[in-house]
Amino acid sequence: MGGDTDKDLGPVKRQRRQIGGWLVLAALLLGTKAIGQVTALDDNLKMNLTGLASFGYNGFFSDAGNSNGMLIGGQGSLTGYYYHPKFLSFRVDPYYNQSRLNSTSNSIYGSTGIHTSADLFTGGHMPVGVSFDKTWDSQNQIDFPGAPSFISHGRGTGFSVGWGLYYENKPSVQVNYSLNDSSYDILGAQTEGDTHAKSLSVSSGYTVAGFNLAALYTNTSLNQNLPFIADTSQKVSETTHQDGIQFSASRRLWDSTNWAASIGHSHSSADYAGLNDESNTTVSSSLTLAPLPKLAMNLNVTYGTNYAAALLQGILPQGSPAAPASSSDQILSNSSDYLTYGVHANYTLTRQWYVNGGADRREQNLNATFVQTDTVYTGTGYSHSLAGGSFGVGYSISWFSSLGAQSGIGQTASASYSRPLLGWRSTANFNLNHNTSTAILNYTSDGYGGALGVSRNVGAVALSLNASASKSRVNGLGNSDSLANGFGASVGWRTLSLGGNYGRTYGNGLQLASGIVPVPPPGQVLLPSVLVYYNGRSYSVSGGWRPARRWTLNGTYIRTRYDTSGSASSVLSDNLSTDFLFRTSYYFRQMTFNAGYSRVLQGFGVNINNPAHSDSFYVGVTRAFNFF
Predict the structure, then answer these.
(1) β-pairing, 111-120 with 88-98?
(2) Beta carbons of 381 and 394 less than 8 angstroms apart
C-alpha cells in the first residue's frame, strides 16, 4: 500500500509523503472553514461536505524496497448547487492513500486522486456538463478470460465535456468530447504501457412529417504502447484513427407497420495487421409489420462496400488489437462488397408456444472469392409449468446451399428447467449448436453450453452450489477451440461464511489495453496473426466471521496460472498470480478500527520462478465526518 514508495523508497521520499499527508489534512480543515464562511455569506450557494479520515501505522515490503511509518488517508465528497440544482450543480470527490486495508478500495496501493464534475443549465435549452479525473498510484486490472484479474500500477488523467441544444419543434444537437491519458506498469513484468485516447461525437435528431430523422458523426484516435502479454519482455505499439458518419430515418406507416433505413460511411487507419486504410459504406432498410394479431414479420436488406471492415467493427468494441508490427492478414486487403436480404416471421400459437422461420440470401466477396449462400430456417419454442417447476425448450434447423462454398444443415437446441427439488432451489439450462453458419459464409461452428445451480437453507445453514461449462470451435479452422468451465460453492451459518470457486478456460483472444478479450468466429478468420492463445486455471477461497455485533473478520485467497502465446512470438509466457488478503474491523461510535495484511505475488514468463511481491500491513482508525 505504498503508492510511489514501491518504485523508489528512501528516507527523503518517505518524509515528503508524510509531510504531504499533513499538508492535505491542514488544507482540508482550512478549506472547510473557508467554504463554511462563503456559504454563510451567500444564501444562493448550497453545499454539503462529508468525508472519512484515517490515521494508522503502515508497513510496505516489495522487491523495490521497504518502508514503514505513520500513514494518513482520507476521502471527501463536496456536493452542492448555486441558485437552483438545474442552474449549476457540482461535485468534488478527492481521496488520498486509499487501499483495501484502510478503506473500501480494492487497491493494494495507496491510491490518490480526485474526481470533479459540474452541470450547467440542466433544466434549460443548452445544458453543459464537464468532468475531470486525476489519479496517482491507482490499481488497474489486466483481464484474462474467465479468471481473476492480474494487477498493474497506474496513473491517469481524464477530461470530458458535453453540450446539448434542445428547442421544441427544432432539431436537437448533442456534442461530446473526451480526452484520456494513462500509463501503467504490470507487477512482475519487465515493460510498461501507456494509452492516449481522444473521442468526439456529434449527434442530432428531428421529427418532421412523421419521420424520425437522426445523424451521427464520430471521430476517435487511439495510441497504445503495451507489454505483449505473450512475451512481456516485448512492447507492442499501435496507433489507430477511426471516423464515421451515419444518417437514419424511420416512420410508422400504418398501425402495425414500421419502416426504417440508414446510410453510413466509416474510415479507419491503423499500423497493424495490414489495416493501413480501410473504408466501408453501408446502406440498409427494413420493414416490420404485424398483418395478424399473432404474426410478426420483418423484411430487410443491407449492402456494404467492405465486408471485412464491417465485421471488424463488431469484433473490436473497446479498441484495436495489439500485435507485433510485422503481422499481416491478407484476407483483409482482399475483402470487397456484400449484400444481404431476407424475410423473417414469428407466429405465436399459444401463450407458451411459438414458431418462427425465414429465408436469407447473402453474397460476399471475400479473399478474392465470390460466395453466395441461400439459407432457410425454421424453429419452435415452448415453455410451461412442469412437475412443480418451470420448463422451456427450443429447437431450430437451417438448410444452407452455397455457390462457391459448402452446403449443409445446421441445428440448434436449448432446454431449461427450474423448480424446488427435495427442499433445494434448483435451476439448469443447456444449449447445443451443430454446423451453424457464421458471419463468414464458408465457415460453420459447433458448440455447447450449460449451467446448473442449487441452493438450500437447512436451519441456520445456507448452502449454494453452481457449475457451468461451454465449448465452441470453428469447423475447418485450426486452433479455434475455446472452452470455459467453472464451479463454485458457498456455505453460511449465522455469523460465519465460506466460499470457493474454480475456473478453467482456453481459447484465442485479442490483446487490448484492458487485457485479453475473446473473439467471435469472424475474428479468428480475419485476424489469425494478431490473436493471443490463452490457457489457464484459477481458484479462490474466501471466508468471513462476525464474532461480535461490531466486529468482523474477512479473508480471501486467489491463485491464477495462465500461459499465453502469440503466433508472431516463439516465446510461451507462463504467468502466475496469487493474492491473499486478511482484514478485521471493529466499529465503535463514529470510528472504525482497521487492521489487516495483504500479500500479492505476480510473475510473467521467465520471472514466474521469481515473481515480484508486494506485502503490506496496516493498523489504524477511521472516522466519518459530516461538516455541513
Answers:
(1) antiparallel
(2) yes
Which range among 58-62, 308-312, 531-535 has the greatest average pLDDT? 58-62
**How crowded is residue 108: how many other Cβ atoms within 10 Å of its Cβ?**
25
* Amino acid code (one letter) for 475: N
Rounded Cα distance between 236 and 240, Å, is 13
Task: Single out the residue of 415, 381, 411, 408 nearest to residue 397, CA to CA.
Answer: 411
User: Residue 273, Cβ neighbours under 10 Å: how many?
Assistant: 22
**110: nearest Cα among 206, 228, 17:** 17
Label residues 535-548 b or e (16+ Cβ within 10 Å = b): bbbbbbebbbeeee
Could you tell me which of 324, 134, 148 has the C-alpha nearest to residue 229?
A: 324
> Is 23 in a helix, a strand, or coil?
helix
Long-range contacts of 475-479 (CB under 8 A, 24+ apart): 475/435, 475/443, 475/444, 475/445, 475/446, 476/443, 476/444, 477/443, 477/521, 477/524, 477/525, 479/508, 479/533
Task: Report CA torsion sign: 35, 39, 44, 47.
Answer: positive
Q: Which pTM does this prediction carry?
A: 0.80
Q: Closest by alpha carbon to 468, among 490, 453, 480, 446? A: 453
DSSP 48-73: EEEEEEEEEEEEEEETTEEEEEEEEE
| Rounded-to-integer distance, Cα 598 and Cα 109, Å | 10
Strand residue runs (E) in 125-171: 128-142, 150-165
- The per-residue pLDDT for range 285-339, each reduced to its tens digit, is 999 999 999 999 999 999 998 876 776 665 554 444 444 333 334 444 455 688 8
353's grid cell: 408456444
Whether 370 contacts 404, CB under 8 Å? yes
CA–CA distance, 154 with 225 (Å, rounded to integer): 14
pLDDT for the residue numbered 475:
81
Q: How many residues does the chain have?
A: 628
Q: What is the three-class DSSP state of 146? A: coil
CB atoms within 10 A of CB 255: 7
Rounded-to-integer distance, Cα 265 and Cα 162, Å: 24
Q: Look up residue 577 and give its three cell numbers.
A: 498470480
Rounded Cα distance between 6 and 24, Å, is 21
- The residues facing 476 across adjacent strands are none
In the three-class reduction of DSSP (H, G, I as helix; E, B as strand; rest coil), residue 569 is classed as coil
Query: Which triple of cell numbers denotes residue 14?
Result: 518517505
Cα R_g (the chain), whole angstroms: 29
